């Protein structure tokens, strides 16, 4: 099967940007103070002779995607950069023709093989995780989708139908999807506005008493400052997961400080998500913490919209971490564990009731997981890995086009605003948050909406 619009890759270039964070951010108990961003530009040619270029970008978030007790930060970051260059070679040499979703599935297998090779060549003491490979590959995948849309003069979300695809979703998701294409599970046009989830990091000062070392750059320094500055109504609270009393008191103080601030603003409704970065030793820890939270502040408990993956990401190694009791309290979302359909099915079996989509796992995979999760009736959210610039536009595009997504994350404006320079003036709706939400109506241009070479 083939279509005249099928594309093949004819070229690829990579470049890297390094930025220091404005303030440190804590991932899984590790404070991170800088980021390395991978940019990918690709060229494609269709069967009927049309050529186009596409652009993709993604932070190489090694602390999140390649956590290690055996390797240093520099070693895992170097491994990701070496892997990215190896993937560029695989990408350039890939001779197949097809739709970006179809090509992406095949490329993922080749990328995983390349990751095994890089791990052996670097003599790493542990293999490169699949999640890490997906992060490295996501910029290439985004560039491919962007090029395809630009070749057709269409937004990418207009290209996920039988008109352009050779295979339906049953090819990857099973017989229950026969005759269906991704367009059945995404909006052709973006939602015009979406709430923004603001990150309250474990190291972030909540009030003036906690503000020990002001940054002094004119941006907000405390949680009340940020709430007033952006009109926030959604807060993502980072927790430790290994100190129940600390986690409980942190949520209670966030709720108290937020309540005081929102009263001044005249706001009566807002929401929290709780992020443990998989550090809870057991589900019992989470259930007990939520029980105490409801006792101490019933309103604070009610404001929790969902809980991000609280326990270890290796679901097969920890079948005892069944989320059924916790999910009776709030939706529990699979995040780090979600790398394919098998992991999504296992998570549902273990009691997870939601799924986090991430641009850093690939545009094509996000579409497939969005379709599968919707068919299962799961709660959906989109998280952004502190994506700046083009990668934020990519992430926001997924959030604005997938039905049922609760809100958009945008952490780079807090931790790495310098990486948004050059984008802020061109897309103020995305980078200038007002009334606690983003103006996502601009995400309807050719390709991935607003990403350009």
Detailed description of the structure:
The chain has two domains: 7-170, Enolase-like, domain 1; 193-439, TIM Barrel, CATH 3.20.20. The chain is an alpha/beta fold and 453 residues long. It has helices spanning 62-65, 73-92, 100-121, 130-152, 170-173, 223-230, 244-265, 283-296, 298-302, 324-327, 341-349, 363-376, 389-401, 412-415, 428-431; strands at 7-27, 30-46, 51-59, 193-200, 234-238, 271-275, 304-308, 332-334, 354-357, 379-382, 408-409, 437-439. Strands 4, 5, 6, 7, 8, 9, 10, 11 and 12 form a nine-stranded mixed sheet that branches. A three-stranded antiparallel sheet has the order 1-2-3. Helix 3 (100-121) runs antiparallel to helix 4 (130-152).
């Amino acid at each position: 099967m083939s279509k005249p619009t099928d594309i093949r890759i004819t070229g690829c270039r990579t470049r890297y940007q390094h930025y220091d964070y404005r303030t440190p951010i804590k991932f899984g108990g590790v404070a991170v103070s800088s980021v390395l961003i991978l940019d990918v530009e690709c060229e494609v040619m269709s069967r009927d002779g049309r050529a186009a270029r596409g652009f993709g970008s993604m932070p190489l978030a090694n602390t999140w995607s390649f956590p290690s007790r055996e390797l240093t930060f520099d070693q895992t970051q170097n491994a990701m950069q070496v892997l990215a260059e190896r993937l560029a070679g695989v990408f350039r040499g890939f001779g197949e023709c097809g739709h970006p979703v179809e090509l992406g599935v095949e490329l993922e297998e080749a990328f995983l093989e390349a990751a095994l090779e890089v791990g052996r060549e670097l003599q790493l003491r542990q293999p490169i995780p699949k999640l890490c490979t997906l992060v490295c590959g996501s910029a290439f995948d985004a560039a491919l989708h962007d090029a395809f849309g630009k070749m057709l003069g269409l937004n990418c979300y207009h290209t996920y139908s039988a008109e352009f695809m050779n295979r339906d979703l049953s090819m990857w998701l099973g017989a229950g999807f026969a005759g269906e294409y991704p367009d059945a599970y995404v909006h052709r046009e973006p939602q015009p506005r979406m709430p923004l989830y603001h990150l309250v990091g474990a190291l972030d000062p909540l009030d003036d008493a906690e503000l020990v070392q002001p940054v002094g750059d004119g941006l907000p320094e405390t949680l009340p400052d940020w709430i007033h500055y952006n009109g926030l109504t959604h807060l993502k609270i980072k927790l430790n997961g290994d100190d129940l009393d600390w986690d409980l008191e942190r949520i209670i103080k966030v709720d108290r400080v937020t309540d005081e601030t929102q009263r001044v603003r005249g706001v009566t409704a807002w929401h929290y998500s709780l992020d443990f970065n998989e550090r809870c030793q057991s589900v019992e820890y989470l259930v007990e913490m939520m029980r105490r939270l409801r006792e101490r502040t019933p309103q604070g408990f009610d404001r929790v919209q969902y809980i991000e993956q609280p326990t270890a990401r290796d679901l097969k190694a920890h079948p005892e971490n069944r989320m059924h009791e916790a999910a009776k309290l709030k939706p529990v979302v699979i995040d780090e564990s979600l790398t394919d359909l098998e992991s999504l099915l296992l998570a549902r079996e273990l009691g997870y009731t939601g799924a986090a989509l991430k641009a850093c796992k690939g545009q094509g995979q996000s579409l497939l997981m969005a379709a599968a999760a919707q068919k299962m009736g799961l709660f959906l959210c989109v998280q952004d890995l502190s994506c700046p610039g083009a990668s934020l536009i990519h992430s926001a595009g997924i959030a604005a086009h997938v039905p049922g997504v609760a809100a958009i994350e945008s952490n780079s404006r807090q931790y790495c605003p310098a990486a948004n320079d050059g984008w802020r003036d061109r897309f103020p709706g995305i980078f200038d948050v007002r009334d606690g939400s983003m103006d996502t109506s601009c995400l309807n241009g050719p390709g991935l909406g607003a990403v350009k070479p």
